[in-house]
What we know:
By secondary structure, the chain is α/β, with parallel strands linked by helices. The protein has two domains: 6-303 and 363-442, Luciferase-like domain (TIM Barrel, Alpha-Beta Barrel), CATH 3.20.20; 307-357, no CATH class. It contains 15 helices and 13 strands. It has helices at 36-48, 71-76, 89-94, 112-125, 140-145, 154-174, 231-240, 251-267, 289-300, 305-316, 335-340, 349-357, 369-383, 397-412, 425-430, and strands spanning 6-12, 53-57, 100-106, 130-135, 181-184, 189-191, 199-202, 207-210, 223-226, 243-246, 276-285, 363-367, 387-391. The strands form three sheets. The chain has an eight-stranded parallel beta barrel, surrounded by six helices. Strands 5-6 form a two-stranded antiparallel sheet. Strand 9 (223-226), helix 7 (231-240) and strand 10 (243-246) form a beta-alpha-beta unit. It is globular, with a radius of gyration of 22 Å.
Amino acid sequence: MTKQILLNAFAMNCMAHQSAGLWRHPRDRSREYYRLDYWLDLARTLERGLFDGLFLADVTGVYDVYKGSPAAALRSGMQVPTNDPFSIVPAMATVTEHLSFGITGSIPYEPPYAFARRMSTLDHLTQGRVAWNVVTGYLDSAAKGLGQTQQTAHDTRYDIADEYMQVMYKLWEGSWQDDAVVYDKDQGVFADPDKVHEVTHDGDYFQLQALHLCEPSPQRSPVIFQAGSSVKGQAFAARHAECVFIASNQVSGAAGMVQSLRQQAKAAGRQPEDLKIFALLGVVLDDTDALAAAKFADYQQYGLVDGALALMSGWSGIDLGQFGLQDKAEDLSSQALQSALKGLGRRSVGEWAEFLMVGGGATVLTGAPATVADEMQRWITEADVDGFNVAYTVMPECFEDFVRLLVPELQNRGLYKSSYSAGSMRQKLFGRGDRLGPTHPAASFRRL
């Protein structure tokens, strides 16, 4: 049986997410990011195209590594200003019935007790159509905004994240029993106090003694996304994630990541199919290959080099402003920089910036629908990914083109659904119940 492709649109509640400078294109509407109608229109388009979800990235802090200043990020609008991603979800849920919403929430920046309520509220309001993309943070500017001097060490952040997840599972899965809500008007009883339990946690990083504030939501725990690529990050994903977001510009590299993740999931006592793996993808479409190539070239001329390098400097933690645009990655003295840019080969820092400007480092497929569908099918077959997070270029044109041109081609090949199935996000993705499965660590915190 042919595997059907899963699709998320990849966006952020900001001026420029990853394609540096494309907000300057005359057909781009990104300047309207702070208006509800911008997001409602996008949600309607994605639901018309049967997208599984809208994956909302987020970052706390600004990109100030490049040339030691946030100036380049501010000039180019590179992920600053950025608004809260959670606030726009309920509005989009009102104009859709099936589209799900994956929202990035950074563990260091909100206490688990408050965050558990926030996610349960969204799960209620969307009728079970939410996911949480778990991130541990990476910008020192974010840590400084919270009164710290710098980010906690990388591996320690994942130790903190492991404990944070335990607290979340206790609140979501172990505080309210399934039948705790009685709603007996005659007896005047809303909830049975004997079936609502205080959660206690006394760990290395978190202490808690409280009831979860929300009654059980459709999914209890939201669908868990994770995008860690380090050894520690992959191990965390294998234990906790249901959906994993990977970035690789080569099918062979993606295949290696997928195989490693599925093997680690199995070693953690889960099944390889418990993970749905999404690769980062950009798409530039038109009726013919030639027209699509011309559209891509048109997009390129609006890119901003400094914005792209500000983004890459923030990702890598290394100031690319200290190098010339002609310097080759393997010739640079910084070993850390060589690691961060190892995919460059013989290309220069300037060429890397150009690569980031359209698609933000995603694999960008350019062509007619048949051409793009061929390559997507190859990724599904050879890399064993389950689907794609589709990065935007010019908004909302790129998603409108995708729905108008590519969706019918994928459907004709039997690679994409022709209608939505009923149920929560978890039911749609995995074809099972609303709750996390019995092999997931959250299951151990449930009260029978």
